[in-house]
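From the methods appendix. Each design record in this collection lists the tokenized structure first, followed by the designed amino acid sequence. Records were kept in a plain field format so they could be parsed without special tools. The example shown here is representative of the layout used throughout.

RECORD:
FOLD TOKENS (159 positions):
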């Protein structure tokens, strides 16, 4: 029996490399660098970093950025970050070919942010809700999903 991989704090954490969609690869394979956990970013930094990862076809990694914001930010911002994390995971599952899980998470994430007022931190909530609904519908219909090609725009033009 092999000992479980552990992080520096002793928590169980697989050391296997992962691909851009977060799937584990064999030990020794070239993978995508993991997102560090527990990084505290400003809301603007969160949006920019997540957009960079989404554009690179790495929605699994973008979800980790949103998760950090959700866990470290103010409670009133949690619904936004949680919903965005669910959208990113929905895109991840859709790109992995898991149509049922992908569509379900896209709809759940959209429902979680739908009622938010305005454009919190510049995030285009109505546009993301529309994007998620359209993608979920296509995924339900059997469409293949390329994560980078389907990456949503989180906000207006990001510099």
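DESIGN:
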């Amino acid at each position: 029996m092999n000992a479980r991989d552990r992080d520096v704090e002793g928590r169980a954490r697989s050391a296997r490399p992962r691909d851009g969609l977060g799937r584990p690869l064999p030990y020794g394979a070239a993978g995508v660098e993991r997102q560090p956990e527990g990084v505290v970013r400003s809301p603007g930094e969160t949006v920019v970093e997540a957009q960079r990862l989404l554009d690179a076809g790495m929605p699994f990694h973008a979800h980790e950025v949103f998760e950090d914001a959700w866990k470290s930010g103010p409670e009133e911002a949690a619904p936004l970050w949680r919903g965005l994390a669910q959208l990113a995971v929905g895109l991840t599952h859709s790109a992995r070919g898991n149509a049922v899980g992908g569509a379900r998470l896209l709809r759940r994430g959209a429902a979680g942010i739908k009622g938010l007022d305005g454009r919190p931190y510049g995030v285009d909530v109505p546009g993301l809700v529309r994007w998620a609904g359209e993608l979920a519908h296509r995924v339900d219909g059997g469409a293949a999903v390329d994560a980078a090609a389907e990456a949503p725009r989180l906000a207006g033009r990001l510099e």
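APPENDIX NOTE: The chain is about 50% helix and 0% strand.
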